[in-house]
Amino acid sequence: MDKNISILVVDDFSTMRRIVRNLLGDLGYSNITEADDGRSAWPMLQAGNFDFVVTDWNMPGMTGIELLRNIRGDARIAKTPVLMVTAEAQREQIIEAAQAGVNGYIIKPFTAQTLKEKLDKIFQRLTEAA
Amino acid sequence: MDFEGRRRLADALREAVRLWDAGKTIEFDQSFEALLKQREKGLYAHVSRLTRGLHQQVLEMHYDRHLAQLAGDEMPDARHRLDYIMQMTEKAAHRTLDLVDQARAVTESLTVAAAHLQDAENVLAETHPDTANVGVLIHGVRSGLEADAARLRATLTDLAQAQEYQDISGQVIKRVITLVRNVETALLELLRLSGAPLQSAPPVPIKPASTVLAGPAVEGLGPRAASQQDADALLADLGF
User: Fold this and answer.
1) Sheet with A7-10, side-by-side order of all strands
2) In Å, what is the CA distance from B2 to each residue of A74, B5, B34, B35, B160?
3) Do A90 and B223 make contact, defined as CB atoms within 8 angstroms?
4) More confidently predicted of B63 and A28
5) Which of B164, B215, B240 lies at the smallest CB-CB distance from A19?
6) How far is B56 from chain A (nearest CA, A)?
7) Size of interface A-B (CB pairs under 8 A)
C-alpha cells in the first residue's frame, strides 16, 4: 500500500489523536491530518482529498457514526475507507457500524498490532476489489 | 374558628343554659350532645383537608423517586466507574515507569558504545595502528547502535500508547460529572419545593441513562462488552 496516502484522524481527545498519529507514523504513514470531532472533520473531508479516515465514535458535535453515514451518503467521497477506533463495545453498536458501512472496527484500549492488522486487512481488500 | 362559627356556638350555649334554667334536663343533655358532635365533625374535616394536601404534595414531588434512583443505582455505578479509573491510571503510570526504565537501559548501552569508540581512537593513535582491530571495534559499535535505535523506537511507541488511558478515563469522568449535575438539580429542586410546599414541581429534566451511548466498558457494570476478538468474529459473520 502507498505510504503517502492522506489520512484524517478524528477524535475529541488530543492524546488519542497523538497516539494514533504516532502508531500510523511507525507503520510508515506520515501524511496525517487531525480533526477534533465529526463536525470539524466533515468540511475537511468534503474539501480535501483524503484517502482514509480513522474516527472515534463518541464525540460532541457530530459522532463518528454520523460522520460515517454522511461519508457514505456523499457520492464524491462515499468510497473512502473508514476505520472506527472506539470505546463503544456493545454488540448492537458493532452491528450498527457494520450496517452503516464501516471498513474496520477497533475497540479501545487497543494495541499497535491490532491497528496494523486492521489497516493491512482493509488495504488488502481494497487491492482485491480494485 | 370564624366569627359566624363562634356566634353559632354562643347561641347554642345560651339555648343550653335556658333549658337548664327551665329545668328541662333531658333537652339540655340532647342539645349539649349535638354541640359536641358538631365540634368533632369540624375537627375531622380539618384533618382530612390536611391529609389531602400532604398527599397532593407528595404526588407533585417526583424528585423523591429520582433521588432514590440517583442514590440507589447511579451513585454506586459512578463509584464503581471512578474505582475503575483509579486502577487504570495506576496501571498506566506503572507501565510508563517500566518503559522509562527500559529506555534508561538503552542509554547505558550507548555509553558502552562510546567507550568502544574511545578504544578504537586509542588504537588509531598508536604509531603502527592495527587497523583490522579498529575495524572489528567499529563493526561492534555499529551493530550495537542499530539494536539500540530499534529498542528505543519500540519503547517510545509503547510509551506513547501507554497514554491512551487519558482518553478512556476522560470519557468515564464526563459521565460521572453528568450524574453529579443531575443530583445537584434534583437536590436544589427538592429544597425549593420544601421551602414553598404549595407550588407544584416543573417537568422533571432528568434524562434516562439509556438514551446515551454505552461508553467505555467497565468491568462488572452494564451489559457485557465485546472484546476485539468478539468484534472481529461478529464482523466476520456479517461478511467483513
Assistant:
1) A32-35, A7-10, A52-55, A82-86, A104-107
2) 78, 5, 19, 16, 82
3) yes
4) A28
5) B164
6) 41
7) 91
The C-alpha cell 466476520 sits at: B236
Question: Which has the closest alpha carbon to B213: A130, A69, A60?
Answer: A60
C-alpha cell read off for A41:
472533520
Q: Given the C-alpha cell 358538631, which residue does it identify? A: B38
Alpha-carbon distance A125 to B63, whole Å?
55
Judge whether residue A57 has pLDDT over 90: yes
Which residues partner with A55 through β-bridges? A10, A84
ipTM, two decimals, is 0.84
- Distance of alpha carbon B101 from the chain centroid: 36
Residue of A44, A126, A90 whose CA lies nearest to B218: A90
Looking at residue B77, its pLDDT comes to 86
Round to whole Å and give the CA distance between B145 and B110: 7
Contact by Cβ (8 Å): A50, A33 = yes
Low-confidence ranges of chain B (pLDDT < 50): 198-199, 210
Determine if the pTM surpasses 0.80: no
Q: Average model confidence (pLDDT) for chain B? A: 82
Only one residue has cell 542499530, namely B146
* Cell numbers representing residue B77 in the block: 455505578
Q: Which amino acid is at B140?
A: G
